[in-house]
Amino acid sequence: MSIDFLDDFVKQTKTGGQKVKHYPKEYSNLRLRVSFGQGTLSKIPWVQVVAPDVGTSNGYYPVYLFYKQENILILAYGIGESVEADSWNSEIHSSKQRIDEFIDNPFRYGNSYVCEHYEPIVNGEEVNYLRDGKEVSKKQMTEELDSLVDYYKECMDIDLKDETSVISTGLFYMEQQLEDFIIRNWEETELGKKYDLIYEEGELISQQYRTDIGIMDILAKDKKDGSYVVIELKRKQTSDETIGQVTRYMGWIKKKLGDPEVKGIIVAGKFDEKLDYAQEMTPNIEVFLYQVDFKLNEHKR
């Protein structure tokens, strides 16, 4: 895809204009947002590539941040300023440099992480980009953005395609409600046919089951033999992280609760080849796929 919009963006930061209607509305089937400020010109205008329904202040997303005073354009692992946790994957937080480590006392967005950085040079209608004194080609810049966007999609655990809208699949919007939905409708699900929820003194303890190594999404018991079943919902984690999480909790159950027959279940929104390969080596872990149908029916009197 073309990143010609970036040249227009950089040139517009020199004019004081704030209109954004002429910019593309999407990039790689994600929303493209551009801002130069509202009323007052922003000191750090930005271009976001973001999943539907993700907010600027409370989400995370790939973003170009242009620090005008320093003349530094950063392609960043963007993090909303209201976000305290649960953004990107742990490897980003541990391996990438924060913007407030890259730029001394940045005016805003210091909690985001640097993916790539550029020095824009405007010559009339032409914009060139340097990194460490060497010119960076548009082809390379496009590849860098595409790589970050692909990683973002994996982190968000959504697969946005031209022919598939978020509202029809329900994958994105259901993430937060999926666990509650499964619990409320337990007996009607495939899980409820084989496994029982756990109660103590009339109180449900299966959901958000706490351990000293973390919180399981759901802990249930096999109807036939009473063995424990660890159920984890694959949300923003990668497949590798989800497999690791389930096996870790299974190990805890085996050691702490004395159940050598403990099983694991991963509930995911779409087929994942990595999960399929992992199942080959972990036969005591099952994968369930959920599907949401969204329909509008006319009300006839």
Give an account of the 3D structure.
By secondary structure, the protein is an alpha+beta fold. The chain has 2 domains: 4-156, 2-Layer Sandwich (Metal Transport, Frataxin, Chain A), CATH 3.30.920; 166-289, Trna Endonuclease, Chain: A, domain 1. The chain has 9 helices and 16 strands. The protein has helices at residues 4-12, 90-95, 99-102, 138-156, 166-169, 171-184, 190-194, 239-256, 273-281; strands at 26-27, 30-35, 46-50, 60-67, 72-79, 113-123, 126-131, 134-135, 195-197, 199-200, 203-204, 207-211, 214-222, 228-233, 263-268, 285-289.
Topology summary:
Blueprint: H1 4-12, E1 26-27, E2 30-35, E3 46-50, E4 60-67, E5 72-79, H2 90-95, H3 99-102, E6 113-123, E7 126-131, E8 134-135, H4 138-156, H5 166-169, H6 171-184, H7 190-194, E9 195-197, E10 199-200, E11 203-204, E12 207-211, E13 214-222, E14 228-233, H8 239-256, E15 263-268, H9 273-281, E16 285-289
Parallel strand pairs: 14-15, 15-16
Antiparallel strand pairs: 1-2, 2-3, 3-4, 4-5, 5-6, 6-7, 7-8, 9-13, 10-11, 12-13, 13-14
